[in-house]
Amino acid sequence: AVNAYLDTLSDNLENERNGRDAKLEEARSEADQLRSEGYAQLMDRADGDNESDAVEDYQKRVEEAIDDRRDAIDAAVLEFRTETDTLIAKRKSAMQTARDNFKASVGAAVAKLETDCTNGVATATILSNFKESLMSARTKLASDKKAAESIQGEIRNLAETRKTRVALAVKTFQAELLAANTELQQAFEEE
Predict the structure, then answer these.
(1) Host H or E run for residue 179
(2) C-beta separation of 101 from 143 below 8 A
(3) Is the pLDDT of residue 1 over 70?
(4) Do 6 and 95 contact (CB within 8 A), yes or no?
(5) Which of 94, 103, 155, 171 has its CA 20 to 30 A from that of 37?
(6) Could you write out the DSSP letters of every residue in 40-53?
(7) Are 51 and 187 in contact (CB under 8 A)?
(8) 149 φ, ψ to 5°?
(9) CA-CA distances (angstroms) from residue 177 to 19, 40, 59, 90, 163?
């Protein structure tokens, strides 16, 4: 049951990512369409070669800034996903190892129990040793599980890094867009 859950976890994560990517592509496509319409309106308003050149320069600058922003955001998301996938695989492996070790410890305890019974060891000693072995196996399993769960903090750090990189890309884009808007506005005011 645990293995099946862990296997579906990867599939669910991939489906969620694909859904987010599809929504992002759709939003980008809509934004591209709206921008194209805006450029056409600016060209219609342009009187003379200077304003037309200014609109073309503006369009080029904005498109370059958008491409830079998209590239930076896509790179941040890709790095986050890659590192997250690595951590998830590491956790899955650690959990599998913990389960295997637990099963082996319980198997060894049962084998020792059977051997002790066959050899005529005192019942109280057998039960005491068996309980001690099981307790030790459970403690080790809990410890291994806790160590495997420590990736949550690492994933939070990765998310924070991604968030910072995306915010920087947006800030850089906004600064470039403001400069382009100012230049265009000046070109339209000159004539």
Answers:
(1) helix 151-190
(2) no
(3) no
(4) yes
(5) 171
(6) HHHHHH--HHHHHH
(7) yes
(8) -75, -10
(9) 29, 18, 10, 42, 21
Residue type, 32: D
Distance CA(22)–CA(126), nearest Å, equals: 61
pLDDT classification of 187: cutoffs 50, 70, 90: confident
Residues in the chain: 191
pTM of the model: 0.79
* 18: its two tokens: 């694909």
pLDDT band with cut points at 50, 70 and 90 for residue 5: confident
Tell me the pLDDT band of 46, cut-offs 50, 70 and 90.
confident
Q: Count of CB atoms within 10 A of residue 69's CB? A: 20
In angstroms, the CA 166 to CA 70 distance is: 9
Q: Give how far the C-alpha of residue 124 lies from the chain's centroid of Cα atoms, to the nearest Å.
A: 53
Show the 3-state SS of 144-170: HHHHHCCHHHHHHHHHHHHHHHHHHHH
